[in-house]
Design goal:
single chain, alpha+beta, f41 fragment of flagellin, N-terminal domain, four-stranded antiparallel β-sheet, 19% strand
Length: 320
């Protein structure tokens, strides 16, 4: 897991470098090739054996590497879910590879921003400003539509096609707020440009993120706005996948702590059993018989004394 996190951090650094405004197509192509190599290394980590004939991310079982690199992207061929130990301990013995690598939340985890058609502007991931005002449900689509250009550029935010109160003159980098959400649009939107905000879903693949970034960076002639959108989306999606991976690593860390505790308990029980066995097997028979006879003599004397007292009547006791 540590290898995966380190590779993701290297990918992030590469994506940040790709946003350098002075870079040419050839420079971005070099960075894209580096991302290709990092992607291959990441796929190798995802298909790493567990040392027992299976695969760490094989879920409930996989006889072959669980991740298959196809023309349409990386597909999961393992069995979803995770194998667990006994019911008493309930420790995970494997990791659900699909959940770890292919099912991170899209966007910022609450909503996802999309550039629909602009080549001269780009939109950031956005943030939630007031959870109580959120009006996101399955299928909800907010659209930001631009009219005019330059100093006369204006925007209007629509929810499922209906106008909202969010509208006005556009200023690059100024936050646009609507229904508990806020996001910024940079650059110079052209007349007719539009952006979308949709609910987040659990279906983000780290490999699809890389494939998209690599394809964009390898394409020549892209505008500053397009490159900036590629870098912004790539970093946003990579951070979401990295957060999911760190969560999986944390869960495995807790499981390892639990296994260490179980091992410690078993070790203590084993030591107690060995001590009791040693006490029984290493008994000095002569000393043991002597101790037993002494205890037996004392016990007999106590019984006789008690018996004599029991036979006395109150008058016998007072006259005695």
């Amino acid at each position: 897991m540590g290898d995966a996190v380190e590779l993701m951090q290297q990918i992030r650094e590469t994506l940040v470098s790709a946003g350098n405004g002075s870079y040419k197509d050839t420079d971005r192509a070099v960075l894209a090739n580096r991302l290709v190599g990092l992607r291959e290394s990441l796929l190798a980590v995802a298909n790493r054996p567990d040392g027992t004939g299976g695969y760490l991310f094989g879920g409930q079982g996989a006889a072959s590497p669980p991740f298959l690199d196809t023309a349409g992207g990386v597909a999961y061929k393992g069995t979803a879910g995770a194998t667990r130990g006994s019911q008493d301990e309930n420790m995970p013995l494997s990791v659900d590879g699909a959940a770890a690598w292919l099912q991170a939340p899209t966007g910022n985890g609450i909503f996802e921003t999309r550039n629909t058609n602009s080549t001269t502007a780009w939109i950031g991931p956005g943030t939630v400003t007031d959870p109580s005002q959120l009006a996101l449900t399955t299928g909800t689509v907010y659209s930001v539509q631009f009219s005019g250009s330059g100093a006369t550029s204006t925007y209007a935010v629509l929810k499922d096609g209906a106008p909202t109160a969010a509208a006005g003159p556009f200023k690059p980098g100024q936050s646009i707020a609507v229904d508990g959400m806020a996001f910024t649009i940079q650059g110079a939107p052209a007349d007719g440009d539009s952006f979308e905000i949709v609910p987040s879903t659990e279906g983000l693949s780290i490999f699809n993120t890389l494939d998209s970034a690599i394809s964009d960076l390898q394409s020549p002639g892209r505008s500053t706005g397009q490159v900036s959108q590629t870098v912004t989306n790539g970093i946003r999606d990579l951070d979401a996948s990295l957060a999911r991976m760190l969560s999986v690593r944390s869960e495995l860390g807790e499981a390892m702590n639990g296994l260490d505790g179980t091992e410690s308990r078993f070790a203590s029980q084993k030591l107690y059993s060995q001590t009791e066995q040693s006490n029984a097997e290493d008994l000095d028979m002569v000393q043991g018989i002597s101790d037993f006879q002494n205890q037996q003599t004392g016990y007999d004397a106590a019984l006789k004394a008690y018996s004599m007292v029991q036979r006395l009547t109150l008058f016998q006791y007072l006259n005695g």
